[in-house]
Specification:
By secondary structure, the chain is mainly α. It has 13 helices and three strands; from the N terminus they run αααααααααβαββααα. The longest helix is centred in the middle third of the chain and has 22 residues. The chain is elongated.
Length: 272
């Protein structure tokens, strides 16, 4: 039986044709190990053997039915074989397993487009962007030692809307927080100049009614923006949504999505 480390290294270096026989050996030796079916299915998909991919990934799902990544891979294979109804159901199962799995929402939207259900696809792209915002917001830890990200003049504003959505989501998860506040322009400028609150993302304080209000600091928004900029998932989903809006004749909305998507992608291709 081949060493697992050898298989993983070959997968990492994209030696899909070479590693597939080793995965078949591993499946024979350990038929209840879902991961071998999963990797074999992915190899088959990358080699464009879609029927084999569906067979292996279906078996992986039967052994690991609640794993969103396995469900996503199976759904993509079904989508590529034009089995759109089953692909939709599989993506929905992935979302049920992980409601913040933006990749499953994105693949669901692409499949809905293939089915001609453009209204649902637009709603699902928006759900994908909101899921990404929730995931990023949940990962943020409110420490003074956080890196302080500087303000960046940006002609686009959608990222700020998703950052605000993430802030509202965080407040909804804390029963002690009864209100939300944003810094004024002057306070934001002062904070950036003095760095008085260090790397904090927010400050909880009592208002005049003795209710706890969460004030989100400039560093929250700047850090959120940079998290979106360095994760091409945001730009990819936004680009998909923009192309569909353009196709539907909603040109101003499309311009916002496509412009911001390409603005955020640009640093990934800068070699200076």
């Amino acid at each position: 039986m081949p060493e697992n480390s050898q298989i993983l290294e070959m997968m990492k270096t994209q030696q899909f044709a070479e590693v597939l026989p080793l995965l078949h050996q591993a499946i024979e030796a350990a038929p209840s190990d879902w991961s071998n079916y999963y990797m074999a299915g992915q190899c088959a998909r990358f080699l464009e053997d879609l029927d084999s991919a569906v067979i292996h990934l279906k078996q992986a799902v039967s052994l690991k039915p609640d794993d969103p990544a396995v469900l996503l891979a199976y759904g993509i294979a079904l989508q590529l074989t034009k089995n759109f109804p089953e692909a939709v159901n599989t993506f929905r199962s992935a979302i049920t397993s992980d409601p913040d799995y933006e990749l499953a929402f994105n693949s669901l939207a692409l499949t809905q487009e293939e089915q001609g259900d453009f209204a649902s696809a637009l709603e699902t792209y928006e759900s994908a962007l909101q899921a990404l915002a929730r995931r990023l917001a949940k990962a943020m830890r409110n420490n003074r030692s956080n890196r302080i990200m500087k303000h960046d003049e940006c002609q686009f504003h959608l990222w700020f809307e998703y950052a605000t959505y993430g802030a509202l989501y965080l407040c909804s998860r804390d029963p002690n927080v009864q209100g939300i506040a944003m810094p004024s322009a002057s306070l934001a400028l002062e904070e950036e100049q003095t760095e008085r609150n260090g790397g904090l993302f927010w400050i909880d304080q009592l208002d005049t009614d003795n209710k706890q209000v969460r004030m989100f600091m400039p560093n929250y928004f700047n850090t959120f923006r940079e998290a979106l900029r360095t994760d091409r998932t945001y730009a990819t989903i936004l680009d998909n949504k923009g192309l569909l809006l353009e196709q539907q004749g909603r040109l101003e909305d499309a311009k916002q999505c496509l412009g911001e998507a390409r603005h955020f992608l640009r640093p990934l291709y800068s070699y200076s």
